[in-house]
TrEMBL record:
Role played: Catalyzes the reversible epimerization of D-ribulose 5-phosphate to D-xylulose 5-phosphate.
Pathways per UniProt: Carbohydrate degradation
UniProt cofactor(s): Zn(2+); Fe(2+); Mn(2+); a divalent metal cation
Catalytically driven reaction(s): D-ribulose 5-phosphate = D-xylulose 5-phosphate
Name of the protein: Ribulose-phosphate 3-epimerase
SUPFAM superfamilies attached to this UniProt entry: Ribulose-phoshate binding barrel
């Protein structure tokens, strides 16, 4: 029985009180924060830059992962690391030279991750799995929180789990999008071990209760 890793997407957080919100996320016993970085080009939404992440860094000690939903992320890779993100996730679809980009993240001292949009096949990352510590399989089309979970991604999740295990790779398999009490168990059965949730965690008035509910539902 592997305990699920719970990651909070900050997208539904109250941006007017972001520092206090990250403290509340840590106090709720959530394992990591995902900063949903969006540039208005790769996805039709625009969120925050490295300075916003840096402003929250010292409020908590928990890990930060930057999910770069941005075109051509290379010029700013060091900025996310300097802002305090221990994991930097780029989209395979946004990188002209993905092998080099992932190698650069590692050289900068962060853990590289690669994300796949729903339409992108696992074969896209076949030749770079040895370079990453994390594979993020999107279970929504990126850009917004509160969308419906795409169960059609479960074969891709299962294929990723099989490939990681077959090659004996030490890779966190994360899913992101529409993860909640009604969907997390199916994603876990398919082979995911890391679960990023936004609206399911911020629903109601207790992050801790929602987090506990998700952890229970993951192994139900
Ligand atoms: C989507 C974001 C996801 C999203 C998750 O573009 O990358 O992290 O915020 O939110 P929910 O859990 O509400 O789908």
């Amino acid at each position: 029985e592997i305990a699920p890793t719970l990651v909070a997407s900050v997208l539904p957080a109250n941006f007017a009180e972001l520092g206090d919100q990250v403290v509340a996320i840590e106090q709720a016993g959530i394992d990591r924060i995902q900063w949903d970085v969006m540039d208005g080009r790769f996805v039709p939404n625009l969120t925050f830059g490295p300075d916003v992440i840096a402003a929250c860094r010292d409020r908590v000690t928990m890990g930060f992962e930057a999910h770069l939903m941005v075109e051509h992320p290379d010029p700013m890779l060091s900025r996310w690391v300097e802002a305090g993100c221990g994991i930097v996730i780029v989209h395979a679809e946004a990188c002209r030279h993905l092998h080099r980009t992932l190698s650069t993240i590692r050289e900068l001292g962060a853990r590289p991750g690669v994300a796949l949009n729903p339409a992108t096949g696992l074969e896209t990352v076949e030749h770079v799995l040895d370079l990453v510590d994390l594979l993020l399989i999107m279970t929504v089309n990126p850009g917004f929180g509160g969308q419906a979970y795409l169960a059609s991604m479960e074969p891709k999740i299962a294929a990723a789990r099989a490939e990681i295990d077959r090659r004996g790779l030490d890779i966190e398999l994360e899913v992101d999008g529409g993860i909640g009490p009604a969907t997390i168990a199916a994603a876990a059965r398919a082979g995911a071990r890391v679960f990023c949730a936004g609206s399911a965690l911020f629903a109601g008035n207790s992050l801790a209760d929602r987090a506990a509910e998700l952890r229970r539902a993951a192994t139900a």
